[in-house]
Amino acid sequence: MRKFFLPLAATFATVLSSLLFVGCSKDDDIEQKPFEDIITNEGEGTLFVINEGQFPTGYSSLSVYNAGTKAIVNEAFSKANGMKLGVGAQSMTIAGSTGWIVVNNSNVVFAVDPLTLKEKGRITGLTSPRYFHQVNDRKAYITQLYDNRIAIADPSTYSVTGYIDVPGMEAASGSTEQMVEYGDYIFCNCWSYQHNIIKIDTRTDKVVATLEVGVQPRAITLDCNGKLWALTDGGGYEAHPEYEAPTLVKIDAETFTIEEKFEFKLGDFCSKLCLNGKKDTLYWINGDIWKMDVKATALPTESFLKSNGTFYGLTISPVSNDIYVADAIDYTQNGLVRRYSPEGKLTDQFSVGVIPGSFCWYIK
Q1: DSSP code at position 176
Q2: What does the pLDDT look like over 213-238, one tens digit per residue?
Q3: Exposed site from 70, 228, 231, 272, fewest CB < 10 Å?
Q4: Which residues does 327 contact at the CB level (< 8 Å), separation at least 6?
Q5: Which CA distances in Å does 104 have to 50, 171, 185?
Q6: How far apart are the C-alpha atoms of 61 and 186, rounded to whole Å?
Q7: What stretches of the chain show up as alpha helix (H) in DSSP?
Q8: pTM above 0.85?
Q9: CA distance 100 to 124
Q10: Closest Cα to residue 337, out of 347, 346, 324, 319?
Q11: pLDDT of 80-97, one tens digit each?
């Protein structure tokens, strides 16, 4: 059976302070405003918060936050569709006029109208979906756990049309994750018990190259200079058979070769790699929030934002460069999102669902 690293629960003091903090959040105002009135792609846009819910039986949920007015509504998917989102919501992305919500443990990808959140269709027949990337109007890729294939889907018919086999990967330990597009290629990190970034030719739907970067590449992103950045977690826990220090790896997307490799300390746990609006500054979670210029030649020695909770999710506004940090608190009660200015000043906080794990921006 495959093991996964889970963050430790917060200490009693942290939980208590977080509970007091949540008690002062904007819950009293949440239900007074229908979510249809706050979703917009104008200005600073709308931020969707994907709340995982407790594994394995707790239902996931979707929160909606207007970055301009700071209005917030929870359980938005349920209110729009009269049903629960499912178990294990993993990610959301918006392509054109459709939002795609990937629900891992329910083995489904929902297609929704991003302005109303009404369901337009759903893709089923998946093993354990993780991320969705639309290549064009008739083709999308869906990565999966417990499968050595990436599913190919037709977004217009909500159907699986084929698969991309990943060389050297067994089905039982298969794990493909995030995807970024560069020209005619998709780059994807292979996570659990894997070591590689794979390169897929979207014209042939074939893996054309693999690059070993370290134990468990957890995240991938593409900066303003055409450089891929991969963040490994080193296995995540001491009992992992290949446990090592996490790394941040810089890769030239054109040549698909490693340019630099930055090593963290053994025992660090790094996750949620992302970029600012100009794509020239990296951010990630390693207990605290850290940031680094993409041209830097060494890892930062001091964190950007000190942790005052259980930091679990991270995103940067593409418009304002404000930093949004999700706090899972104790992984059982509703979580919290804190918003900081680019300089690190707290400007807002709001209560969301249980275990807020990922974000999706809707901006014109």
Answers
A1: -
A2: 999 999 999 999 999 999 999 999 99
A3: 70
A4: 18, 309, 310, 311, 312, 335, 336, 337, 338, 356
A5: 12, 16, 25
A6: 29
A7: 12-22, 27-30, 76-81
A8: yes
A9: 13
A10: 324
A11: 999 999 999 999 999 999
